[in-house]
């Protein structure tokens, strides 16, 4: 799989540059060591405050704060001082994994594995000839806080919304151990991929 | 397709009971008249205020107001008087269509059709032997408003959040005409399904 080699090189490069979420490195290593599957962009779940100049204009949006762990009320409050233009949202997002499978059969296994691990928004994306499975949770919070630098909520509300976002994040991340167990079982079934260890050795030496 | 016949009977029964969102009836008729595909649960997009007793406890949640058109600030405000227990959210959700395809090949076509019509969260769900395509937009708003009957936002904020939710709903629904055009093209390609007209005739007479 040429595409897997390229994906592994990207992953190890990103790890070396500390660009991979630390709390899912073990899991990403496990998944990529399985024969017939590899990960592309993945996120361990996050909470933050973002400014979006226009609805749906993602490329222009700007994080005022973004963390892969719960944030404090003070951090949220402080970050809002930098708000300038566009809609301000508090967002909490569950872990998400994009996994390419080499066959429809393996894709189906991944799909069932995600659902069985409690990630209820797990789906297939079979665009062109690539089988992509997105393992995704349901804990999405998108709370508007204001617009164009003007915050429309008070401290009581901000505290409430941050606590809610944090609970959703913790809840979503709590499924990661089960996901890992299920990938360990899948590895026993599908076997190890020598390519993974080959690329890993090159990066570790 | 025995499953399609059952799905059509459910759909026409629901229509007779006025349980189908009126603004997508034409589209649902069109999709179901195509050979090799049929719809299951679908929604034309909605906005509302919901109470959720516990995070993720969907079965126990309760709508205080729910409409398939923009709502007014006054309607939102009035509905909040009935809040009692659990987290209160203002939710705006885009149109969503669940479509079963009789083959992977048709499933892929539906998937591409959804994406090409601007529904960026369109995905495959290939559970067991059923190919299910979910045509879904990205315009999701989940704004917490308070908890256990206590509203933590003021009128300025509520007005702002309702307007934002309404804009997202309008924006999401504005893609429906393009979706319809694309299904008309798909019908030319895949052909008419006589089964649809047979079931329809039974219900109209």
TrEMBL record, chains A, B:
Keywords: Methyltransferase, S-adenosyl-L-methionine, Transferase, tRNA processing. Gene3D superfamilies: tRNA wybutosine-synthesizing-like. Residues 3-184 form the tRNA wybutosine-synthesizing protein domain. InterPro entries: Taw3 (IPR022908), tRNA_yW-synthesising (IPR003827), tRNA_yW-synthesising-like_sf (IPR036602). It catalyses: 4-demethyl-7-[(3S)-3-amino-3-carboxypropyl]wyosine(37) in tRNA(Phe) + S-adenosyl-L-methionine = 7-[(3S)-3-amino-3-carboxypropyl]wyosine(37) in tRNA(Phe) + S-adenosyl-L-homocysteine + H(+). Its EC number is 2.1.1.282. GO terms for molecular function: tRNA methyltransferase activity. GO terms for biological process: tRNA methylation; wybutosine biosynthetic process. It is an enzyme of class 2 (transferase). Belongs to the TYW3 family. S-adenosyl-L-methionine-dependent methyltransferase that acts as a component of the wyosine derivatives biosynthesis pathway. This is tRNA(Phe) 7-((3-amino-3-carboxypropyl)-4-demethylwyosine(37)-N(4))-methyltransferase. It comes from Thermococcus barophilus (strain DSM 11836 / MP). The lineage of its organism: Archaea, Methanobacteriati, Methanobacteriota, Thermococci, Thermococcales.
């Amino acid at each position: 799989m040429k595409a897997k080699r390229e994906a592994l090189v990207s992953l190890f490069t990103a790890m070396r540059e500390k660009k991979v979420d630390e709390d899912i490195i073990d899991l990403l290593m496990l998944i990529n060591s399985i024969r017939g599957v590899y990960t592309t962009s993945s996120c361990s779940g996050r909470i933050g405050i973002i400014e979006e100049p226009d609805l749906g204009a993602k490329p222009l949006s700007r994080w005022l704060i973004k963390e892969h762990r719960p944030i404090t009320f003070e951090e949220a409050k402080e970050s809002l001082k930098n708000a300038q233009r566009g809609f301000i949202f508090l967002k909490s997002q569950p872990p998400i994994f994009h996994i390419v499978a080499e066959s429809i059969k393996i894709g189906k296994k991944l799909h069932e594995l995600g659902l069985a691990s409690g990630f209820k928004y797990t789906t297939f994306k079979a665009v062109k000839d690539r089988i992509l499975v997105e393992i995704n949770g349901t804990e999405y919070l998108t709370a508007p806080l204001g617009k164009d630098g003007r915050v429309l909520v008070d401290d009581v509300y901000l505290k409430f919304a941050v606590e809610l976002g944090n609970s959703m994040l913790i809840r979503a991340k709590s499924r990661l151990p089960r996901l890992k167990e299920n990938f360990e079982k899948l590895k026993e079934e599908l076997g190890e991929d020598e390519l993974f260890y080959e690329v890993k050795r090159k990066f570790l030496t």
